Amino acid sequence: SDCQESPSKHYIVFPYINTLSEKINKLLHSYNIIPAWKSGNTIKQFFTKTKSKIQTDKLSNIIYKINCQDFHSCYVGQTSQYLKEKLYQHQYDCKTKKDDNSTALLRHRIDKHNFDFQNVTVLDKEKKNNTNEIF
Using CA of residue 84, residue 74, residue 99, residue 132, what is the dihedral sign? Predict the structure, then answer.
C-alpha cells in the first residue's frame, strides 16, 4: 500500500511579539511544531481591580456564619452593624452571660459550643438595610 506515516505535530504556546512571532512561526512549521500565540499583559489587566476591597470586618448589612470549633455546626446571623462590632458583642456575651439563653448563639454556648470568631464567613451582603424577617 502507499500509506505514508505523517510526521506527528507538536503544539506549543508562546507569547506574541510583533514581527518576531511571524518569523518564528515559519521556522517552527518546518519542524512540525504548531505555535499558539497568546497576547501579553494589557493595560486593562493592570487596572481592572483598582477599587479597594473592603475588609470583611468593616462590612455591614450582612448575613454571616460562625463555625463551631467543637461540633459540625454553625451559627448564622444577620446584622446592620459592622461585622467587627457584632463579633465583639458576641464574644462579650459569651464571656459574661454564662447562663443566658436569650439568643441562639448563647444557647449554643451553654451547650459547650466554642465558636471560631477568627474565621467568620460572610454569606451575603444586603443592598439595603432590610430585614429578612416577615411579621
Answer: positive
Q: Give the integer Cα–Cα distance in Å for 121 and 103.
A: 19
Number of C-beta neighbours around residue 22 at 10 A: 11
Q: Any residues with CB less than 8 A from the CB of 63 and at least 6 apart, and which?
A: 76, 77, 78, 122, 123, 124, 125, 126, 132
Q: Considering the entire predicted model, what is its pTM?
A: 0.54
- Residue 4, C-alpha cell as written in the block: 505514508
- Report the candidate in 133, 135, 131, 117 with the shortest Cα–Cα distance to residue 80: 131
pLDDT tens string 51-77: 666 788 888 999 999 998 888 888 899
DSSP 52: P
